[in-house]
Predict the structure.
Amino acid sequence: MFKKISIKRGLAMAMISSLILSLGGCGSTNTGAGSTASTEARDYYKVGVITSLSGAEVIGGNITKYGYDLWADVVNKKGGIKVGDKGYQVKLIYADDQSDPAAGANAVERMITSEKVDFILGPYTSGVTKAVAPILDKYKVPMITGSAESPSIWTQKFAYTFGSVPAADLTASSPLETLSKLADPPKTIAIIGVNDAFSKAVAESFKAAADKTGVKVLKYDIVPAGTDFTPLISAIKQLNPDVLAIGGHEAEHMEVIKGSKSLGFMPKAFVMHYGITNPDFTKNLGKDADYVYGAAVWTPDLKLKDDVFGTVQDYVKAYKEKYNAIPDYTAAACSATGQSFSAALAKIGAKPPLSDQQREELMKALEQVEVNTFYGPIKFATDGNWFHDNVGLKALTIQMIKGEQIIVGPEGMKAKDAIYPVPSFSAR
C-alpha cells in the first residue's frame, strides 16, 4: 500500500514540476513567441559585428573591424553611450561571414537568435549586406554598414538596413568627371568590372560617366571573381586606351597594376575606386601605386570634428597609434557609424538590453537623426533609390602619391592639380 501511494505522489509531483517549468517558459520573455529580445540583466549594449574576417575579402574586412573596434574603444573610455543621465558601455560580438553571402546570412541569424544582440554593425561587402538584410527585417534588428556601397542594396528598400557610405553610383563617376575637365582630357577608355555587387556597380558607373563626358569606351567586360587578368590586359594593351578603369576590390587592383607592369602596358591613367586607399595597396606595390585615381568621400586632411573623436587629425592619430596605418574612408565611416546608433538610442531613451519594441523604435529613430561627425554628416534617406543610405557626403577625386590620398577634384575642393598623363613605371 505504501509503495502505491509513493508512486502516485511521485507522479503528482512530477506533473506539478512540469507545469511550473511550462509556465516559467511562457514567462521567459515579455515580448511574445519568436522574440529575439534578451532577458539577461546587463548594463551594457551587446553589439553584433558581421564582416569578412576570412576569405577573399579579408583585407577589407579587417579595415571595417579596425574602424568598429576603435569606435568601441573610444566611446567606452568616454563613459559609453549616454542615455539619459547614465553611460552604457558597448561590447562587440563578432561573426565571420567568410566573404560569402550565404555564410554571412547564417552567421547573422545565429548572432540574433543566440547572442541576442541589441543592434548590428554591418559587413564589408555589398554581397553579404544584401544577403543579411532580409534576416534583419525578419527579426527586426537594425544594422548600419560602414562599408557596403552597391546601389542595389538601397533600391530594395530593406527596412532595417542602413549605410554610412554613399552608394557607388553617387561617387564612382568623380575621377572621370575630374579628368574630363583637364586641358587635354582622355578620349578613350577600357573598363573591367568584377562580377560582385559593388564592383559591377562601380564599372557601370565608370561606363555611364564615360558616356556622359564623351570618352569612347573601347572595351567593357564584367568578369568572374578570381579571373586571371593577364589575358585581358594583353588584349587591352592592343587597343591602347588612354584610361584603364577597374571596378573591383584592393586585391584585383593590385593584380591589375602588377599585370600591366609585367606586360609593359602603361595607360595615361589608371582609374579605380575603393581599395587604393587601403595601406596594403601602397605597401605591396611601392612606387607602382603612385598616381592611381580613385573616388572617396573622406580623406585624412579634411577639416571636420565631433565630440567623440575630436578633429580628423585626432582620429587619424588615434587610428595610427592603434594600427600603425593611415585610415581610409571605410575605416572612418565604420568608426563614425556607431555615433548614429548613439544618437538614436539617446533620442528614444533605450537602455540595454533592448526589447523587440525598442529595436523597432531604434530603426525609426535612425531615419530621423542627423549626426555631424569627423567623417562628415550622416543622414539616411527615407525614400527614393538610396533608401536608408547616407546621401549627405560629396564625392572627391583622389590621386595616390607616396601613400597619401591627394584631393584633385572637384575644382572647389582640390588640394593639388591632377597629374595626367601619369609618369611611366620606369620613370618614378
